[in-house]
Design brief:
2 domains; alpha+beta; 6-stranded antiparallel sheet
Protein backbone atom coordinates (compact mmCIF):
# COMPACT_ATOMS: atom_id res chain seq x y z
CA UNK A 1 0.00 0.00 0.00
CA UNK A 2 1.21 3.51 -0.82
CA UNK A 3 2.55 5.38 2.23
CA UNK A 4 -0.05 7.79 3.54
CA UNK A 5 2.24 10.82 3.50
CA UNK A 6 2.95 10.31 -0.21
CA UNK A 7 -0.78 10.28 -0.97
CA UNK A 8 -1.33 13.42 1.09
CA UNK A 9 1.59 15.23 -0.54
CA UNK A 10 0.32 14.32 -4.02
CA UNK A 11 -3.16 15.54 -3.12
CA UNK A 12 -1.85 18.77 -1.59
CA UNK A 13 0.25 19.43 -4.69
CA UNK A 14 -2.69 18.90 -7.03
CA UNK A 15 -4.99 21.15 -5.00
CA UNK A 16 -2.37 23.90 -4.68
CA UNK A 17 -1.56 23.81 -8.39
CA UNK A 18 -5.22 23.95 -9.46
CA UNK A 19 -6.24 26.74 -7.12
CA UNK A 20 -3.09 28.81 -7.52
CA UNK A 21 -3.86 28.91 -11.24
CA UNK A 22 -7.21 30.54 -10.44
CA UNK A 23 -5.55 32.90 -7.96
CA UNK A 24 -3.00 33.94 -10.59
CA UNK A 25 -5.69 34.85 -13.11
CA UNK A 26 -7.69 36.74 -10.48
CA UNK A 27 -4.57 38.71 -9.57
CA UNK A 28 -4.09 39.69 -13.24
CA UNK A 29 -7.61 41.14 -13.26
CA UNK A 30 -6.98 42.88 -9.93
CA UNK A 31 -3.85 44.48 -11.42
CA UNK A 32 -5.94 45.73 -14.36
CA UNK A 33 -8.45 47.24 -11.91
CA UNK A 34 -5.65 49.03 -10.07
CA UNK A 35 -4.23 50.31 -13.37
CA UNK A 36 -7.65 51.57 -14.52
CA UNK A 37 -8.11 53.46 -11.25
CA UNK A 38 -4.67 55.05 -11.55
CA UNK A 39 -5.32 56.08 -15.16
CA UNK A 40 -8.63 57.78 -14.39
CA UNK A 41 -8.31 61.46 -13.49
CA UNK A 42 -10.01 62.41 -10.24
CA UNK A 43 -13.06 60.36 -9.29
CA UNK A 44 -13.16 56.82 -10.72
CA UNK A 45 -16.55 55.85 -12.13
CA UNK A 46 -18.02 52.47 -13.05
CA UNK A 47 -17.43 53.27 -16.72
CA UNK A 48 -13.69 52.85 -16.10
CA UNK A 49 -14.29 49.19 -15.29
CA UNK A 50 -16.51 48.13 -18.19
CA UNK A 51 -13.74 45.77 -19.34
CA UNK A 52 -14.41 43.60 -16.29
CA UNK A 53 -17.49 41.94 -17.78
CA UNK A 54 -15.40 40.22 -20.44
CA UNK A 55 -12.49 39.52 -18.09
CA UNK A 56 -14.78 37.79 -15.60
CA UNK A 57 -16.56 35.84 -18.35
CA UNK A 58 -13.17 34.65 -19.60
CA UNK A 59 -11.99 33.45 -16.19
CA UNK A 60 -15.26 31.56 -15.63
CA UNK A 61 -14.85 29.80 -18.97
CA UNK A 62 -11.12 29.15 -18.51
CA UNK A 63 -11.62 27.51 -15.12
CA UNK A 64 -15.05 25.97 -15.74
CA UNK A 65 -13.81 22.68 -14.30
CA UNK A 66 -13.57 24.39 -10.91
CA UNK A 67 -15.52 27.62 -10.67
CA UNK A 68 -19.14 28.58 -11.31
CA UNK A 69 -18.98 32.32 -10.82
CA UNK A 70 -16.76 35.36 -10.44
CA UNK A 71 -17.11 39.03 -9.70
CA UNK A 72 -15.97 42.19 -8.00
CA UNK A 73 -17.11 43.93 -4.82
CA UNK A 74 -16.18 47.59 -4.70
CA UNK A 75 -14.88 49.36 -1.61
CA UNK A 76 -17.73 51.21 0.14
CA UNK A 77 -18.01 54.82 -1.04
CA UNK A 78 -15.48 54.35 -3.84
CA UNK A 79 -17.96 54.92 -6.68
CA UNK A 80 -19.91 58.17 -7.02
CA UNK A 81 -22.88 56.36 -8.59
CA UNK A 82 -23.65 54.20 -5.55
CA UNK A 83 -22.35 53.85 -1.97
CA UNK A 84 -22.08 50.05 -2.47
CA UNK A 85 -21.74 48.11 -5.68
CA UNK A 86 -21.31 44.40 -6.40
CA UNK A 87 -21.00 42.78 -9.83
CA UNK A 88 -21.13 38.99 -9.91
CA UNK A 89 -21.53 36.64 -12.84
CA UNK A 90 -22.70 33.01 -12.81
CA UNK A 91 -21.95 30.32 -15.40
CA UNK A 92 -24.87 28.99 -17.46
CA UNK A 93 -25.35 25.65 -19.26
CA UNK A 94 -25.64 27.54 -22.56
CA UNK A 95 -24.38 30.93 -23.58
CA UNK A 96 -22.25 33.28 -21.53
CA UNK A 97 -22.45 33.94 -17.79
CA UNK A 98 -25.51 35.75 -16.42
CA UNK A 99 -25.42 38.70 -14.06
CA UNK A 100 -26.43 37.81 -10.48
CA UNK A 101 -28.68 40.43 -8.94
CA UNK A 102 -28.10 41.35 -5.28
CA UNK A 103 -30.29 43.65 -3.23
CA UNK A 104 -27.95 46.43 -2.10
CA UNK A 105 -30.63 48.62 -0.51
CA UNK A 106 -29.93 48.84 3.26
CA UNK A 107 -33.64 49.44 3.93
CA UNK A 108 -34.70 46.23 2.21
CA UNK A 109 -35.50 42.98 4.03
CA UNK A 110 -33.34 41.15 1.48
CA UNK A 111 -30.38 43.52 1.83
CA UNK A 112 -27.11 41.77 0.97
CA UNK A 113 -24.39 43.50 2.97
CA UNK A 114 -21.26 42.16 1.31
CA UNK A 115 -19.09 44.50 3.39
CA UNK A 116 -19.66 42.26 6.42
CA UNK A 117 -18.93 38.98 4.63
CA UNK A 118 -15.68 37.22 5.40
CA UNK A 119 -14.81 36.88 1.72
CA UNK A 120 -14.77 40.70 1.56
CA UNK A 121 -13.45 41.65 4.99
CA UNK A 122 -10.42 39.32 4.99
CA UNK A 123 -8.72 40.48 1.77
CA UNK A 124 -9.77 44.07 2.53
CA UNK A 125 -8.21 44.07 6.00
CA UNK A 126 -5.08 42.04 5.21
CA UNK A 127 -4.47 43.14 1.63
CA UNK A 128 -3.75 39.50 0.74
CA UNK A 129 -5.38 36.77 -1.35
CA UNK A 130 -7.27 34.13 0.62
CA UNK A 131 -9.59 31.15 0.20
CA UNK A 132 -12.70 31.62 2.36
CA UNK A 133 -15.13 28.90 3.41
CA UNK A 134 -16.73 26.56 3.04
CA UNK A 135 -19.98 28.40 3.66
CA UNK A 136 -23.50 28.40 2.25
CA UNK A 137 -23.89 31.05 -0.44
CA UNK A 138 -27.29 32.36 0.64
CA UNK A 139 -26.76 35.44 -1.49
CA UNK A 140 -26.50 33.49 -4.72
CA UNK A 141 -27.15 29.79 -5.25
CA UNK A 142 -27.69 28.34 -1.76
CA UNK A 143 -24.96 25.69 -2.01
CA UNK A 144 -21.71 25.11 -0.10
CA UNK A 145 -18.89 26.98 -1.76
CA UNK A 146 -15.34 28.21 -1.36
CA UNK A 147 -14.57 31.74 -2.52
CA UNK A 148 -11.08 32.60 -3.71
CA UNK A 149 -10.52 36.34 -3.12
CA UNK A 150 -7.84 38.82 -4.09
CA UNK A 151 -7.58 42.54 -3.25
CA UNK A 152 -7.33 45.26 -5.88
CA UNK A 153 -5.65 48.29 -4.33
CA UNK A 154 -6.77 51.75 -5.50
CA UNK A 155 -6.66 55.27 -4.13
CA UNK A 156 -10.41 54.99 -3.52
CA UNK A 157 -10.06 51.86 -1.37
CA UNK A 158 -9.54 48.11 -1.71
CA UNK A 159 -11.88 46.36 -4.10
CA UNK A 160 -12.19 42.56 -3.93
CA UNK A 161 -12.17 40.17 -6.88
CA UNK A 162 -13.49 36.68 -6.24
CA UNK A 163 -14.32 33.28 -7.73
CA UNK A 164 -16.85 30.77 -6.38
CA UNK A 165 -15.91 27.07 -6.22
CA UNK A 166 -18.73 24.63 -5.34
CA UNK A 167 -17.56 21.90 -2.97
CA UNK A 168 -18.79 19.23 -5.37
CA UNK A 169 -16.23 20.29 -7.99
CA UNK A 170 -13.43 20.66 -5.47
CA UNK A 171 -14.26 17.25 -4.02
CA UNK A 172 -13.75 15.75 -7.49
CA UNK A 173 -10.21 17.19 -7.70
CA UNK A 174 -9.51 15.92 -4.18
CA UNK A 175 -10.71 12.35 -4.83
CA UNK A 176 -8.94 12.00 -8.18
CA UNK A 177 -5.67 13.12 -6.60
CA UNK A 178 -6.00 11.07 -3.41
CA UNK A 179 -6.91 7.75 -5.08
CA UNK A 180 -7.63 6.10 -1.72
CA UNK A 181 -10.82 4.63 -0.29
CA UNK A 182 -9.27 3.80 3.08
CA UNK A 183 -8.39 5.11 5.56
CA UNK A 184 -10.64 8.16 5.84
CA UNK A 185 -8.95 11.38 4.69
CA UNK A 186 -10.43 14.84 5.22
CA UNK A 187 -9.65 18.17 3.62
CA UNK A 188 -10.40 20.61 6.44
CA UNK A 189 -10.96 24.37 6.35
CA UNK A 190 -9.80 26.79 9.06
CA UNK A 191 -13.36 27.08 10.35
CA UNK A 192 -13.44 23.36 11.16
CA UNK A 193 -15.71 22.52 8.25
CA UNK A 194 -15.11 19.63 5.88
CA UNK A 195 -14.20 20.77 2.38
CA UNK A 196 -13.92 17.22 1.02
CA UNK A 197 -13.65 13.65 2.29
CA UNK A 198 -13.29 10.14 0.90
CA UNK A 199 -15.71 8.82 3.54
CA UNK A 200 -19.48 8.96 2.97
CA UNK A 201 -20.10 9.44 6.70
CA UNK A 202 -18.05 12.66 6.78
CA UNK A 203 -20.11 14.97 4.58
CA UNK A 204 -18.71 18.02 2.83
CA UNK A 205 -19.74 21.33 4.36
CA UNK A 206 -20.29 19.88 7.85
CA UNK A 207 -18.25 20.50 10.98
CA UNK A 208 -15.76 17.75 11.67
CA UNK A 209 -16.94 15.92 14.78
CA UNK A 210 -14.81 15.85 17.92
CA UNK A 211 -14.79 12.05 17.80
CA UNK A 212 -13.25 12.20 14.33
CA UNK A 213 -10.63 14.76 15.36
CA UNK A 214 -9.51 12.39 18.11
CA UNK A 215 -8.74 9.81 15.42
CA UNK A 216 -6.42 12.15 13.50
CA UNK A 217 -3.25 10.30 12.56
CA UNK A 218 -1.36 12.20 9.85
CA UNK A 219 -1.74 15.89 9.06
CA UNK A 220 -0.36 18.02 6.24
CA UNK A 221 -0.82 21.69 5.32
CA UNK A 222 -2.11 21.94 1.75
CA UNK A 223 0.06 24.98 1.03
CA UNK A 224 2.78 25.23 3.71
CA UNK A 225 4.50 28.09 1.90
CA UNK A 226 1.31 30.15 1.69
CA UNK A 227 -0.97 29.28 4.58
CA UNK A 228 -2.70 32.64 4.49
CA UNK A 229 -3.79 31.97 0.88
CA UNK A 230 -4.88 28.34 1.31
CA UNK A 231 -5.38 27.77 5.05
CA UNK A 232 -6.37 24.11 4.68
CA UNK A 233 -5.19 20.82 6.11
CA UNK A 234 -5.29 17.22 4.92
CA UNK A 235 -5.91 14.82 7.80
CA UNK A 236 -5.92 11.03 7.74
CA UNK A 237 -7.99 9.31 10.41
CA UNK A 238 -7.34 6.06 12.22
CA UNK A 239 -10.00 3.35 11.65
Amino acid sequence: MEPMMEALERTAGTLSSSLNGVFADLEKIAAAVTAAAEAAPGVTRRSEYLFLKQELADIIELHSDLIIGAGIAYAPGSLPEAPHWLEWWRAQPKGGPRFVTHDLNPDSLNYYDYTGREWFTLPSSTGRPVAVGPYVDFGGINVNIITLCVPAHTAQGIHVLGCDLPLAKLEGVFLRALRLREPAVVLLGPNGRVIASNNARIATGTLLLEEDLKRAETSLDVSPGSRTRLPWKLISLQP
